[in-house]
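Section 3.1: Structural characterization of target chains.
Under the original work plan, the team committed to producing a structural model for every single-chain target entering the pipeline before any wet-lab resources were allocated. The record below documents one such target. The sequence was received from the expression subgroup and is listed exactly as submitted; it comprises 179 residues.
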Amino acid sequence: SVSVAMLVSAFAADKPSATLSLNLVSESDTEVVVSVKLDSGRFEAIGFKLDLRENIGACKDIKTTGAIMLVPNTANTAVSGAAVSGYDNTTDAIATYTLAKKTADKVTSDDIKLVVTVCGVMDEDGQSVKFDATTVNNLPEKVTESTTESTTESTTEKTTEKTAESTTESTTEKTTEKT
């Protein structure tokens, strides 16, 4: 039983993995700049694109790191490439996108999504091993009116309940003291 658990642990530790994040670099009323970065893990082959909502316009530019051979496609926001010796740089952006905005509204995590289409490494036998990469969207969350309203209602209800309890307790104590 112990040897089986050790074997499973060793296999899990060797399983390839990568976590990529989408990050806000800058934003104006007319454009937004976001970057894709490797947060952890490594890869030798990578492919990703951005899924854009209706308030985001055309992709104006994609700048890629010189550390790996990447082919950017501004028409569909796709980037694909390979790093023969592997890529594990968790400091620099893999790609930086400049996107047009159709409105002056602030960009949120609902507006731009990172989609990894392929991620992989070569095993010791020279065979391609593809795996699912984890993605993290670090763009600001959208604040909705219903969230604000429910938070306000909840706070108002709690304050009203505490005030009512406090008033009742105080009145009860004073009544008890008088009798």
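Strands lie at 18-27, 31-41, 43-52, 56-64, 69-73, 78-87, 93-101, 112-122, 128-130, 134-137.
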